[in-house]
From TrEMBL:
Protein name: DUF2806 domain-containing protein
Taxonomic placement: Bacteria, Pseudomonadati, Pseudomonadota, Gammaproteobacteria, Lysobacterales
Pfam family, one: DUF2806
Length: 347
């Protein structure tokens, strides 16, 4: 009785969170959210939204049918195998608990995604006049694969990351591949820690700026070639990089390069800022120095890692940040943090 009450209360809270999030985001995103949440979340059965009434009735019917099916299955098992009916019933209940447990994991992930949509609503920068036919939708195949991974999300950390992926996919469909979802779900704790360190130290270029997809991301070798342990003092030893490579997060050449002259500010040139540790930066030339090229060697993140980078929370890396600033100073440019415009408050 208490378990049922707790589950009912949990689903009611999840429903309130989802309903609030859906009503607080731009219309184009709202439509994608309703599709994804109705596909994944059992809590939507109780959301008092008119256009979900038919879906709610269908889900209730399915739920009742499953209960009847479990009872019928237990009787069938006991009759066919000639075992104690109570034993067969316990088997059925065990299977039912497993199903409920999986759904509770999915509901928890959906609740986090709903909260993330609310947080990100003012940053989405999507025209609310866009019609449903003008935007891509989260595909059913993607949702099916995502649901499989979310069902086994027992840890709060994994739920949080999957929730961010779902919110990101709803806002910008096709941002996360099925491979990225699987890779995140299968990460062991140590590799997850190394990936967070890698992303926290990475310089990234987004196209378009700020809200676009990560086109370039690398960790600059500020203390020599990374393949000879140049980044070891920052927690990214050669062995650590090999582990990241084995998991598909960095390319095998630990000393490749990218021309970051696009991030150099100048009177006669456009500047494309880069992101580092959660902030946007530009490179300002010292004096009258003319910067034509700015080759930065280091460890390049793969497409898979670049997909996941936006949902990995950066951790402070003050020692590396200081060395990166010094690295650019020796090349006659200064790292300058850019201030992001504060969106106007909604009334």
């Amino acid at each position: 009785m208490n378990d049922n009450a707790d589950e009912g209360k949990g689903w009611q809270i999840a429903a309130e969170v989802v309903s609030s999030a859906v009503s607080g985001v731009p219309t184009p995103i709202q439509q994608g959210a309703l599709k994804a949440f109705s596909r994944l979340c059992s809590a939507l059965i109780d959301i008092p939204v008119a256009h979900l009434e038919s879906f709610s009735e269908e889900r209730r019917a399915i739920t009742e049918a499953r209960v009847d099916s479990i009872r019928a299955t237990s009787h069938a098992i006991s009759n066919a195998v000639e075992i104690d009916p109570q034993y067969a019933l316990r088997i059925s209940h065990k299977y039912a608990r497993k199903i409920v447990g999986r759904q509770k994991n999915v509901d928890a992930v959906v609740g986090i995604a709903a909260q993330q949509l609310t947080i990100d609503a003012h940053e989405a920068q999507i025209d609310e006049s866009d019609g449903p036919g003008e935007r891509a939708e989260v595909s059913d195949d993607w949702l099916n694969q995502f649901e499989r991974e979310a069902e086994s999300a027992e840890s709060e950390e994994l739920r949080a990351r999957l929730g961010k992926i779902l919110a990101g996919e709803i806002q910008r469909p096709n941002s996360f591949s099925v491979r990225a979802v699987r890779a995140l779900a299968q990460l062991d704790q140590e590799t997850a820690r190394l990936l967070q360190k890698l992303c926290s130290c990475a310089m990234t270029i987004k196209i378009p700026m700020g809200v676009g997809r990560v086109a370039e991301a690398r960790v600059c070798s500020v203390k020599g070639d990374a393949s000879t342990n140049g980044l070891a003092i920052f927690g990214l030893s050669f062995a650590a990089l090999n582990r990241l490579h084995e998991n598909g997060f960095v390319i095998p050449d630990f000393n490749s390069y990218f021309d970051f002259s696009i991030s150099v500010a100048g009177k006669a040139r456009a500047c494309h800022p880069f992101e580092f540790n959660g902030s946007e930066w530009a490179l300002v030339p010292s004096g009258e120095t003319q910067i034509r090229t700015l080759r930065v060697n280091g460890v390049q993140l793969t497409h898979l890692a670049r997909e996941l980078l936006p949902i990995i929370d950066p951790i402070p890396v003050p020692e590396y940040a200081a060395q990166l600033s010094e690295y650019f100073s020796t090349r006659n440019v200064q790292m300058t943090k850019l201030m992001r415009a504060t969106p106007p408050e909604q009334t």
